[in-house]
Write a structure and sequence with these properties.
With 71 residues, the chain is mainly α. It is built from 4 helices and no strands. Helices cover 51% and strands 0% of the residues.
Length: 71
Amino acid sequence: LSTRVLAFIPRDPHVQAAERQRLTVMESAPDDSPALAALAALADQVLTIEPDGLSRPTPLSDEEFFAFIKE
């Protein structure tokens, strides 16, 4: 695919609480929320990415995709 994972957002009950309140996690979660910390770190990382240095993702063929999801 020529892509990379930038972050892992951990499961956090504050995410569901934010959804129920129709707020973002950034607006409603306490400062010690694991998801809030991961999202803030992801935002910082995204802001440092130089778009010209990125490669375009290469799509999988149907056969490659079905083989991938079976793994």
